[in-house]
Design goal:
By secondary structure, the protein is an alpha/beta fold. It is 40% helix and 11% strand.
Length: 230
């Protein structure tokens, strides 16, 4: 789970990774026989029993620096990715954060460019709110309208959803399922047997050097075993 990729010294929420650090992290993956792919590619490979060696790379919020900074680094390492833009704020800034640096978000033309480059686009809702606190009408608008709007922009079926702040409950995951999404990304494993509607992810930040990455890889393996037996 990545967010922004830029040289940004002010990062109180630990959501920024420098392009040099991203380059070293992808080199670390490659050195271990692993390759970054989109969630769509990862799940398709899993369905064929061919997911070994693949790592899903996700970029939340849809920062504009994905197109200009992150994508060239990913291309150098032959990696794919899924980007989750906040579709109701395209071309604006991350003003859901009360403090911290303001960063520009992807606009519709950026998204169409990424699709042409083979990047998977999936939904992060309309406005980046905690969906567990939203009334039913707002929840369904955030989930369904964001999918429809992204489909119009991209010309593609939108298969994935990412819960803002990683928070969800049974009502929220049911709304995501009802809206027709194939999968949804959270942070930690969800309660019960939520399956592909609560895929856990490992947060990756600027401080994640080789030792920390190895620790996080082991955590991911433990989560995978837990999901297989749940």
């Amino acid at each position: 789970m990545y967010h922004s990729v830029s040289d940004c010294p002010e990062d109180p929420f630990n959501v920024t990774v420098s392009p040099a650090r991203l380059d070293r992290q992808l080199a670390w993956l490659t050195g271990r026989g692993l390759r970054g792919v989109s969630m769509r590619e990862l799940l398709a490979a899993r369905a064929r029993g061919e997911e070994r060696g693949l790592v899903g790379l996700t970029f939340d919020d849809g920062y504009a620096d994905f197109r200009t900074v992150a994508l060239p680094v990913l291309r150098r390492w032959h990696s794919g990715a899924t980007v989750f833009p906040v579709v109701g704020r395209l071309g604006a800034e991350n003003d859901w954060e009360e403090s911290g640096p303001r960063k520009r978000l992807l606009d519709a033309d950026d998204i169409r460019h990424l699709v042409a480059e083979g990047v998977e686009i999936a939904s992060h809702g309309l406005t980046h709110i905690d969906l567990t606190r939203a009334p039913d009408d707002v929840l369904h608008a955030e989930v369904r309208d964001s999918r429809a709007l992204l489909a119009r922009i991209t010309g593609c079926e939108i298969e994935g959803f990412c819960y803002p702040y990683g928070t969800f409950d049974a009502r929220v995951s049911a709304a995501v399922h009802s809206a027709g999404y194939r999968y949804a990304c959270a942070i930690a494993p969800g309660p019960g047997n939520a399956g592909d509607l609560a895929l856990p992810r490992i947060h990756i930040g600027q401080a994640d050097t080789a030792v920390r990455l190895e620790t996080k890889r082991r955590l991911a393996r433990a989560w995978g075993r837990a999901l297989e037996t749940s």
